[in-house]
Amino acid sequence: MVYKFKEYKKSEILRNHLKMGGSNPEGERIDVTSLYFEKGGKPYLGVMGEYHFSRDKSENWYKELCKMKAGGVGIVATYLFWIYHEEIEGEFDFAGDLDIRKFVLDAKRAGLDVVIRIGPWCHGECRNGGFPDWLCKKPYKLRDNNPEYMEKARIWYERIFAEVKGLFYKDGGNIIGVQFENELVDNAEHILALKNLALEIGYDAPIYTATGWNSLYGAKIPTEDVVPVFAAYADAPWAGHTNKLPPSPHYAFNTQRNDSAVGLDIISPTAPDGWRIPYEKYPFITCELGAGLHPTHHRRPVVSGMDAYAMSLVKLGCGNNLIGYYMYHGGVNKIGKNSTFNESKDTGYPNDYAILNYDYRTALSSYGETGECYGLLNMIHMFVNDFGEILAPMESVEAESFVRETDFENLRYCMRTNGESGFVFVNHYQRLYPLKDVEKVQIDTGSVLFPEFDVKGDVSFIMPFNLNMGNDVLEYATSQLLCKKDNTYFFAAIPNVKAEYKFKGNECIFDTNNFMYNGVRFVTVDWEEAKYLRKLGSDIFIGNRCDLYIEKGMLMAVQQGNFEYKIWDGHEFVEGMEDVEFEEANVSFYSVDEPFEPPYPDQLHFGGRRSLTWKKIEADSPYGFVEIPYSYDVAQIYASGKLVADNYYMGKPWRVPASLVFLKDAYLVMSELKDDFYKEW
What we know:
Elements: E1 2-3, E2 22-23, E3 29-32, E4 37-39, E5 42-44, E6 46-50, H1 61-70, E7 75-79, H2 82-85, H3 100-110, E8 113-117, H4 133-136, H5 147-164, E9 175-179, H6 188-201, E10 207-211, E11 227-232, E12 286-289, E13 299-300, H7 305-317, E14 322-325, E15 331-332, E16 357-358, H8 373-391, E17 395-398, E18 413-417, E19 422-428, E20 438-443, E21 453-455, E22 459-469, E23 472-477, E24 480-485, E25 488-492, E26 501-503, E27 509-510, E28 514-517, E29 520-525, H9 527-530, E30 533-536, E31 539-543, E32 548-551, E33 554-557, E34 563-568, E35 573-578, E36 587-592, H10 601-604, E37 612-619, E38 625-628, E39 634-639, E40 642-648, E41 654-657, E42 666-671, E43 678-679
Parallel strand pairs: 1-20, 6-7, 6-14, 7-8, 8-9, 9-10, 10-11, 11-12, 13-43, 25-29
Antiparallel strand pairs: 2-3, 3-4, 4-5, 15-16, 17-18, 18-19, 19-22, 20-21, 22-23, 23-26, 24-25, 26-27, 28-29, 30-31, 31-34, 32-33, 34-35, 36-37, 37-42, 38-41, 39-40, 39-42
Helix pairs in contact: 1-3, 5-6, 7-8
C-alpha cells in the first residue's frame, strides 16, 4: 500500500517579535524565531536533560555531566528548590551539594549549556513544591503579586543571582535560559512580574520560559516575554487510581502541543474568556518528555527504553524543536533539619513519594548507571546534533489519514519537510498495547517514492529523502541516519527492513554496510550496535555492550571494570580495549531481629500495618553495587542509624552503591508486599 501525506504549507517565520535573544562576548547570538532557535545565525535544535544538582553529591556532578554529554545532551536544566537553600528563614545555604555556581561551572567544563529553573515554586515532587515550611505559614497569598510575597521572591532571586552572577551567556558563560515558576496555568501577570523582577536584579539570558500546559487553550502566559514549554509522559503515577491507563496519545503523530484536552474536534479553539496561547508565535519546545517516571506508593509504572525513545521520536516528527527530558538523571532527596523534603500526603499532596529515592528510572540512575533508554535516545540526539540545522526549519506534515493511538492496525507516520527534502518518521509502537504488523509499506513523500518494506515488531525510525550529501543528493535511505564525521555518514539498520541507498540520477541501489559514492562514505551499523555508538568529540566509537564517555580527556565506560570498543579510523572500525582495575564488593545478608525502632515507620506501613523483615548487610569493599534480591512493599537501608536509601518495589532487584554500607553498621528493613497498588510486572 502507498502511504501519502497532506499538502505541505510553508509557514511564515516571525523574527524579533519576542523579548528574547542575546549575544555573548564573541558576538555569537542566540535568537528565537516562531519556528526554531538560532545559534550563531543558524537554525539550532538542542537536546536538554534535567539533572538536579541538589539531589546528588557535588563530587559526582562533573562525571555525571560528562555522561550526559556523551548521551547527546547539550543543555542541562536544573531546579533550585527554595526549601533546600533556606529551610530556616534568613539562613541561606549554597555550599557543598547546594553550590549552584560550581554546578554551572562543572557543566561548562563538560561542554553543556544550562537552563536554571528558579521558581519560586517548582514542584519537582519536592515538599511544598519547593517552598520552605516557614513561607507556607505566612498570612499572605503565595504565587501572587501581593507586595509581601513579591518581597520574599525578591530576596530569593537576589540570593540565586549572587551565586550565578557572571555565568550568563552575555558574560561568556553557559547559562542560556531561565524558567519562571512552574505549572502556573492562570496568572500571566504573576509570571511577567517575576520576569521583570529578575531583570531588575540583573538576570540576563537569551531565553526565558514558562510551562504552557493546561487545557487545549494552554496556560495563561505573558505572550511576548516567555516561550511556553510542554510535557509528555508515558503514564501518570500521580493519578489517584490503580487502573491501567488507556493508550497514550503520545505515540500517535498528533501535532497538538497540549495533550490534556479531549475531543479536540468539537472544542472551541479559544477559552470562554477568549484566551488561547498564540502557538504560531513560538517554536514547539518540550521541557518534560518523560524519559522515565517516579513511582508513587499506589502507582508504579515501569517506563521501558522503547517507551521513552518512541515518544521522543514522535514528538520530533510532530515538530519538536528543542528536546527536553524530565528527568534525564535521577537523584536522591536530602533530609532537612526539621523535615524530609519529599512530597507526600502529609504535606497536602495526593501522592506519597519515597523519602530519599528520586531515581526516576531514566537514562542515568541516581547513582550514575545507564538505563535502557540511554543508548536509544542517543540515536535521536546524535541525529539532531549533526543535522538539526537542516531539520529545525522543516515543518511537520501529517499523514494523509491520521491514525489515532487507539488504532492498532494502521501505519503511524508523518514527515518533516521543506517541500522538497526531509525525513519520514514511522512509529510502530504503543506503550502496553501490541500493534499489528504492517506489510508492503511504500511511502510517497510527493517528491520521492520509497521502496516497499514491512514494519514489524516494536520499532520506531526516521528515514531521510532528497538529502544533500557531498556533491550528490541521497534520494532515499531505508535506514536511520545517525551522525557524520568528515566525509562519512553513519546509519543504523532498521530491524526487519533492508538498508538500501538510492542517489538521484543513478539507477543503482546500494545495500552494503560500508561503501563509497563520489568521495562520500556510507556506513550502516546493526541496530543493537547503534545503541552503543557514541560521537565523543571528533571520534566515533561503538562500545562492546558498554556505554562510553569522555572524562578529563580520557575514554571511560559507565560499566565498571575492563571494557572493549571499536573506533572509526576513517575507513573501518578498529577494535580497542581498556584495562581497568576493579573488584566488585562481596555482599552478605543476615536475618536479624529488629535492631532499633526505624525513625520513619509511617513509610513502611502505608495503607495499614505491615509485617517487617530485617537484614544486616555487610560489604567487604566500597566498590560496585549491592543488589537487593528480595520482594517487598517498601525497603529502607540504614547505615550507622541514618537512613541512606529507600525504595518502592518495582519488580526487579534494587541496586545501591556498596559505599553506602561499607564499614558501617548497616541494616535493611522491608515491609510486607500486598496487592494494593498498580504495577506492570
